[in-house]
Amino acid sequence: MVFYCTRFLINLMIRKLSIIVVLISFGSYAQTALYNAGNLRIHDLGNIGFHTNLINNGVFDENLGLAGFYSNVPLEISGALTPVLFDVEIATDGGVLLSTSVDVQNNTNFITGDFRTNRAQPENFYEFLQDAFYVGESNISKVDGYASMSGQQTFTFPVGDDQLLRPLILNSDSPNPITKCAYFFEDPNSSSAFPPFNTQIKARSVDAVSNVEFWRLEGSIRSKVTLNWDSRSNLPAIAQDVGNVLVMGWNKIARQWIPLGNSAMGGDLINGFITTETFVPDDFEVLTFGSTAIAIEMLTLDNYFISPNGDGINDSLVIPELEQSPNNSLEIYNREGQKVFEMINYRDEFTGFSNVDNFVINQPIGLPEGFYYYIISMDDLDLNFQGFLFIDRKM
């Protein structure tokens, strides 16, 4: 039996409401769905829990409460019309397949399971509308397929495949009308969704192009992109040194791989990140890593450790070498390559708190424990340095 709903209003007084749908059997199979052909609405403070599929052929776009997807089997959202939700939560072991797009106005809470889209159908995506954000993204909960964003200037796409989170950070010159991104753990020479992007057809300055993974990014606003790599990216196969690594884009007009520059970099060949120079995403089909024979020299200082607990020991990041260069700049990035701290003429001010406005984690509680990258420019000496920083919250 399919549950038909012509008008379903969740009262302001209702704090929690789960819809349970009766099963219908076809032979040895069971199939359930909530079918909306009228006007479905979640009022402020109202919660609706989907334990079954959603078929949306009606109005479902005046929502203020929470829509949660909870199941130990895969769910699906389909229908002729796009649901526009306010807050969303996913705790579905098998994930939620989007056979139609879903728009989110406020917060997405990733707990367990992926929002999945068919990469061969990029018209279906999970869209973060203006001012929308998310928390909890991880290897076990993200967007496995296409995520979209509109009305924002800086955004980190929580995309990946069924195994790993592989985010892309977008920093645009102005707010984007709409931009869309997906990650592919595939060889660009033989993609399941695109014609071949031959990694041997490349600009003269390019030594090699990765055949392990790539990102698809669509957008019309000039932007910088930050990508991160891990051991699965296998950068030692294409680069001798981290300074040789660049982001490559398959140019639509030139029909070849072109380097997109390097405005920031941190890490080593096993774990690290790189930020491009400014380019227009729509000029390129896909992005991946590559290498060039001309290495960018990044000297290495010590790896640092801070435990900002107020005991007077390692409470702040102290870099003695900066005494030799009062005119300096410091940038700190998380493992995904998202900038969390920056300061010109640094003097031991970093105590584990972000000072970057676009950082998504609540600033007053401090940065999470873990590894970070730092980049230092000593302008008096014309030297650039990089290294690792560990923040310990247990001590």
What does this structure look like?
The chain is mainly β and 395 residues long. It has a domain at 299-391: Sandwich (Immunoglobulin-like), CATH 2.60.40. The protein is 0% helix and 44% strand. The strands form 7 sheets. A 7-stranded parallel beta sheet has the order 1-5-7-9-12-15-18, with no helix packed on it. It has a 6-stranded parallel beta sheet with strand order 2-6-8-11-14-17, with no helix packed on it. Strands 10-13-16-19-22-24 form a 6-stranded mixed beta sheet, with no helix packed on it. It is globular, with a radius of gyration of 23 Å.
Compact summary:
The chain has strands at 3-10, 17-19, 24-26, 29-31, 33-42, 47-50, 53-56, 66-71, 75-78, 84-85, 87-92, 96-98, 102-104, 107-112, 115-116, 126-128, 133-135, 143-144, 147-149, 154-157, 168-172, 179-184, 206-209, 214-218, 223-229, 245-251, 256-259, 264-267, 272-275, 284-292, 299-300, 304-306, 328-333, 339-344, 370-378, 383-391. The protein is mostly beta strands.
